[in-house]
Design a protein that fits this description.
Number of strands: 9
Structural class: mainly beta
Number of helices: 2
Strand content: over 45%
Strand order of the largest sheet: 1-7-8-9-2-3
Largest sheet: 6 strands, antiparallel
Order of helices and strands: HEHEEEEEEEE
Oligomer: single chain
Length: 107
């Protein structure tokens, strides 16, 4: 057991649990992690789950279509977004890592 696990931090979990929680979530913007840099790839959009796939929509395109069984998802510590990493069915299985930042609604 590593230090972070002793402190209560968890590894990125599989997407099944998070996928249902994320369904219908509105997105402010999306970045992609490339070569240790975060590059903005879309603004606006949403996350949805259809037929066992998680779909990340942004800027009127599907950025990520991933099987929820192969998806790794973890929330940002701030709670402002989620990190999604999976083979992208839109790009013949190329592994992509996106960070989707949520729209904040005051209740």
């Amino acid at each position: 057991m590593g230090l972070f696990q002793k402190l209560g931090f968890k590894k990125a979990s599989t997407g099944k649990k998070h996928a249902q929680e994320l369904h219908g979530q509105a997105i402010k913007y999306v970045t992609e992690r490339r070569n240790e840099e975060d590059i903005v790839v879309g603004r606006g959009g949403s996350i949805s789950v259809r037929n066992g796939d998680l779909l990340l929509f942004s800027s009127d395109t599907i950025l990520l279509r991933a099987d929820i069984n192969t998806l790794e998802a973890s929330y940002l510590l701030s709670g402002d977004g989620v990190i999604l990493e999976a083979p992208n069915k839109e790009e013949n299985g190329k592994i992509r890592k996106y960070i989707a930042y949520f729209v904040y609604y005051r209740k």
